[in-house]
Amino acid sequence: MTRDVPPSQRGMQQEHPGRSLGAFPRFALPSITPLWWGALIALLWFGYIKAAIPVTLIVDGNMWLHYTHQTNIQDMLREAGITIQPQDAVTPPPDTPLRGGETVHVALAWPVTIEVDGRTIQTFTRQQRVDQILAAAGVRWNTKDFVQVDRQPRAMSSETAEARHSIHIKADAAWPHKVVVTRPSPLHIVVHRGVPITVHDQETAVTLYTVQSHVGTALRAAGVVLGPGDMVMPALDAPVSSGLHVFIRRALPITIEVDGRRLPVHTHSRSVGELLAEQGIVLVGDDYTLPPLDTPLQSRLTVQIVRREERLRFEQEIIPYETEWRADPEMVLDTQRLIQPGSEGVTMRRYRAVYENGVAVSEVLEREWVASVPTKRVVAYGTRILVRQLATPDGPIEYWRHIRALATSYNPASSGKPKDHPHYGITRTGLKAGFGVIAVDPKVIPLG
């Protein structure tokens, strides 16, 4: 008689053909449904939770209650998603056993990268000041060194920005009992070692420390101001090395006044003469300078170029001629005859004038002479009186001189006085204005 065997048991029979199923005791297993499985898992989880101990975590001011089965603080923090660095502050210490109910304080450090002496140090820190961060990293420094924090110049005693060190803590979306701690990007500190150089500026020598790579930038960083024409040895683009001596020869600011212009210059010449040669200014003839050519130059001195020249000036003066009158009894009265025309003479003078910058400063009469002599004018005039007769309505009159004149009316009202005035109508000679009384020019016809 053949028995029906489940496929699983058939397989077992095939694996053990020599063994009878009757050799094993037979029993029935209860059927476990998904609901039973969920209840079982929940029961086990509840038991696991009940066995966990509570720990209060305070990380950078963030507080929450964490349940754990770990036996010490370090494992509990790792379980909570917090990786501890040696520079982090954990209270109590990480190796402290857990019994439940503890409060654990954690102050996390932030990352920092330090570049110094050709090497890079990557570490963590909880220090705020730059010098303290360097000291904690084992970096030695002195006051001559120069630091940059995130590419910005900073003093050794300055504090780093708090916002730069902010640490973010949030719950892990995948594991609710864990957190995600995000530390900031590394703080970047670069230490430049100060190199001593000696700057000789005129009569002063100063030793300064610089982190610059070239002479020009080192002087600028030290506040050394170079003026136009200043000479620097070695050159500004020369590299800086420890113990370097830099010599500065200052150019003197000088003002030159020449040919109506003011020229501000900077020079290394030692005297006025060297300055003019340097500037290509030539003195001609009697030109001179104020101050003189051998005067040593001083800062802000004004050198004046005086252009001196002599000029000749000629002047002429007219010599009037004289007139000689000669009486001629053969000539009728009031007639003239020119015997000899006169001519003017000329007196010449020569002056020597001295001009400085176009302005006359002196003048001397060198010579005076008569260039032409005047000639006398000779005029003959008649003295013979010739009596003539003129017919008039009142009868003939005799005269020996006649004058062409302009006659105007002349009456009492012409005197400019009112009729009731006692001198109304009385002329200058005392005659009463009327027929036969005329006004004359006394220079031609005498009054009366």
Give me some keywords for this one.
single chain, 448 residues, mainly beta, 5-stranded mixed beta sheet, elongated
Q: Count of DSSP E strands?
A: 27
Q: List the total number of helices.
A: 6
Indicate the overall shape: elongated
Strand order of the largest sheet: 6-5-11-7-8
Unreliable stretches covering 5 or more consecutive residues: 1-27
What structural category arises from helix and sheet content?
A: mainly beta
Distance between the termini: 209 Å
Q: Could you please describe the fold and organization of this structure?
A:
With 448 residues, the chain is mainly β. The protein is built from six helices and 27 strands. Strands 6-5-11-7-8 form a five-stranded mixed sheet, with helices on one face. Strands 2-1-4-3 form a four-stranded mixed sheet. Strand 1 and strand 2 form a beta hairpin. The chain is elongated.
Gist of the model:
This protein is 12% helix and 38% strand.
List the helices and strands and how they pair.
Elements: H1 7-15, H2 34-51, E1 53-59, E2 62-68, H3 73-79, E3 89-91, E4 103-107, E5 110-116, E6 119-125, H4 130-136, E7 146-149, E8 152-154, E9 168-171, E10 179-182, E11 187-192, E12 195-201, E13 204-210, H5 215-221, E14 231-233, E15 244-249, E16 252-258, E17 261-267, H6 272-279, E18 288-290, E19 302-306, E20 308-319, E21 323-332, E22 336-340, E23 345-356, E24 359-372, E25 377-384, E26 388-390, E27 397-399
